[in-house]
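Kindly inspect this one:
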Amino acid sequence: MNLDEKFAYMATGQPYRDTDDELTAIRDQATLTTNAVNATADLATKETLLCQLVGSAGKRPFVNPNFRVEFGRNIHLGDDFYANYDCVMLDGAPITIGDHVLLGPKVGLYTSNHLFDATERVNGGCIAKPITIGNDCWLAANVTVLPGVTIGDHTIIGGGSVVTHDIPANVIAAGNPCQVIRPITAADKTGYTGKQFKLS
């Protein structure tokens, strides 16, 4: 099985061996690249390294340190992606993120999970399911997104939430497990356009 076939198989949710030598080598290389991403303050260098690390990236991706990925190649970022401090993405299956997505500090996106049976788990058994985040989403600090979740466009996930199932578009959701609190409506508009700047 070639590498593309291996990653395609992993994304099906079938068990795979996490300790496979080829996967370990890719994981080690991803660690070296994320170390370089985290170490540089030069924005152009950071963006170049980040684009080399992930499977694909739109315009102006940015991550604060300490950014970590498992493989990198299964991550697809839209335009204007921003991850605040201490973001972790385990991408055994694809992580697809839309345009203008903001991740608060300590957000974790976890496509992979160890197998429940102890013997299988000790022998490196894992499963993975894709995560998809729509356009214009904000995941606040300490949000955890678990395997197989889709979050709809324009949605906000409140701080500390654990997202265990799909969340629709245009809502505010929070909790453990994360639940929809209410829709986002015209009443949420403040009139701010990005041009005002006032200090009291």
